[in-house]
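Project channel, design review

CF: Before we commit to the Orbilia javanica constructs, I'd like one complete example in the thread so the newer folks can see what an input/output pair looks like. Taking homoisocitrate dehydrogenase.
RD: sounds good, go ahead.
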Amino acid sequence: MAAARTLRIGLIPGDGIGLEVIPAGRQVLEAIASQFNLKLSFVDLEAGWATFQKTGTALPEHTVEVLKNDCDGALFGAISSPTTKVAGYSSPIVALRKRLSLYANVRPVKSVTGVANNRPVDMVIVRENTEDLYVKEEKTYDTPQGPVAEAIKRISTYASTNIGRMAFDIAATRNRQRAANPAGSIHKQGKVTITHKSNVLSQTDGLFRETVKAVYEADKQGANKYKDIKVEEQIVDSMVYRMFREPECFDVVVAPNLYGDILSDGAAALVGSLGLVPSANVGEGFAIGEPCHGSAPDIQGLGIANPIATIRSTALMLDFMGLEEAAAKIYEAVDANLAEGKLLSPDLGGKAKTQEVVDDVVKRLI
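CF: and here is what came back for homoisocitrate dehydrogenase:
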């Protein structure tokens, strides 16, 4: 028997219900470890608003260094950020994405039989994760007409090339999975939709559009990995309209940071709840699974937070660590839980507690 693969996973609950759902990810990993010859260890790390209030920094240097030097992957919960400016505070997850060069935020959104208000959806939104307006370079200055605030929108060829390759690689992988399991998707052919607003922002969004298209064209002259993938583009406002009217039209959507953030949260409404939608912050050789929902302080401590987004984010982290079979088993267990519909959390119209949902998924894994 081959030696066990050793994995050290960082756990960063953050704030609010992050403290309640990140343990779900750990329980799921522990449940499958022996089946996939994994030897797991975990390290608890801090970040978030509560950490800022306690220490004066939202992202301690210790957390960054441990992730860089001592972890194979990580799970991140949720952050409670103030709605008004607080001196010295900035989003720790945005900072972490930059510090670890996690240039892609990958958010699969897929409907499952058994969840109310579902639409036929099977898309992956691939969001550039390091630039655009999220460079957070803002200033306010006075004019005779009153204060004016400005923000820098930065788009680079380097980052747009990286995210373009990620999107096309994901589309190619999905094509291979469809070939192996034709009934597993609503799509017949892989497609990448480039989302932008270059009709107005001709330099920034124009550069993003042309750079992502260039990734596809360069592949045609070289490896030709993407030959079975269709490419289209969509202006972001019409993209929102079509996504809600015809979600079945979209397979892989690639977008700059801000549009990708908005689109992926909006897409969650198509499948029933933000509590179902996972994401992974991905760089070269490292991934952080992160549920798409926020810290939900209104339900903190009630034990009713939906753990599914975190469990799926755990599987997504494993996907990017090359453990596709382990990830697939988690996805199947989650889908079976949702399809049966007996243990659903309140956001899905059920009455199940967080731990009851976790226990049901774990039972399906062992």
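RD: helpful, thanks. The chain has two domains: 1-108+273-366, 119-271.
CF: The chain has a mean pLDDT of 93.
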